[in-house]
Amino acid sequence: MSALPWMIIAGLLYAGLFIKPKAVGASVTPPALERRDRVYGIAQGEGGTLLVAASNGKILSIGEDHKIVRQATPVNLSLQDIAAFDAAHAVAVGNDNVILHTEDGGKHWTKADSVPRSQVANKLNRVRTGPNGVAVAVGEMGALLRTQDYGKTWERMREEEDVAWNDVAILDGGTFVAVGEFGKILRSGDGGKNWEKEQASVQGSLMSVAFRDAANGVAVGLDGAVLSSSDGGRTWTSAKLPVHDHLLDVLWNADKNEWFAVGALGRWISGKQGADGLQWKTGTLGEHTLSWHTRALASGSSYWLTGADVGSWDGQQWKPLASN
Fold first, then answer.
1. How far apart are the C-alpha atoms of 142 and 160, rounded to whole Å?
2. Cα separation of 217 and 228, whole Å?
3. Cβ distance 224 to 184 under 8 Å?
4. Residues 6+ apart with CB under 8 A from 30
5. Contact 245, 290 (CB under 8 A)
6. DSSP letters of 163-189?
7. C-beta of residue 222 within 8 angstroms of C-beta of residue 200
């Protein structure tokens, strides 16, 4: 009995010196879409798939079966938006003026070189695509950047200035309409050579603008601001809605013949042309659905929304997309 403690100590010493533990089990692979992710942009991809741009440099492909696949990207900066030219070509923009482009539907993403930068602040908020490889990206310090080769090279269309542009619409005939901070609106009718400055009837920031044709457009912004134009963005009329939640994105849905916008606290609005002009209605995604959404994409009779979460809205039910 007196030797037992020494035997235990010797056994422990032997185990510590000569027995090497082995790892058991497999590593856990995190899901492509995590709960903490913020998904800022969405675009229609190839064959019914969706491409979404998110925080930490993530670009995700969402199949028609809702399977989510992360595409490899060369950056870990948050991506603020994504837009597709066609089934093969797409471009994504984000923090620190990062711009990525793909030529194979997202299988490979390449970082654009020599993107114009400011010495003060660099963040691209939105990108819009047009015909023949043209796209325009907007952001901080007056960034209005254009590519004409599907996102490979970029140039400034205006000199740097102390204003953030939040969105831009590309109209037929080389017309651009940009909206930004403090109700500011820019319009160019000659492909970006000359710009006309407009001041909206609101003081808050305008966050998004869209046109259904060369004449008729809608812009939305903070505190429920809704503006409409019928002359290609030269003049704007403010709509009076009982909404004070921030509106962050607007689109024209040709299939449903309606305007649709989303924003903070699950807010949505839709508008259709009536005898007395645009007729608007509004609601929320649900009594307990208070997430913010920065982008909307029309998909048949429903809309895909991205922001604090990702999901679809059919006008009656909000269906969040589960991570996998």
1. 5
2. 6
3. no
4. none
5. no
6. --EEEEEEETTTEEEEEEGGGEEEEES
7. no
Q: Using an 8 Å Cβ cutoff, are 245 and 230 in contact?
A: no
65 Cβ contact partners less than 8 Å away, ≥ 6 residues apart? none
Q: What is the pLDDT of residues 69-112, one digit of tens each?
A: 999 999 999 999 999 999 999 999 999 999 999 999 999 999 99
Can you tell me the distance from the alpha carbon of 40 to that of 78, in angstroms, rounded to the nearest whole number?
9
* 26-84 residue pLDDT tens: 566 778 888 888 999 999 998 889 999 999 999 999 999 999 999 999 999 999 999 99
CA–chain centroid gap for 42, Å, is 6
pTM of the model: 0.89
Give φ, ψ of 51 to 5 degrees: -110, 130
Q: What is the CA radius of gyration of the chain?
A: 25
For 173, counting Cβ atoms within 10 Å of its Cβ (0-12 exposed, 13-18 middle, 19+ buried), the class is: exposed
Dist. CA 225–CA 112, nearest whole Å: 35
DSSP one-letter code for 150:
T
CA distance 315 to 253: 13
Positive/negative CA dihedral, 160, 162, 166, 172: negative
Amino acid of residue 130 = G
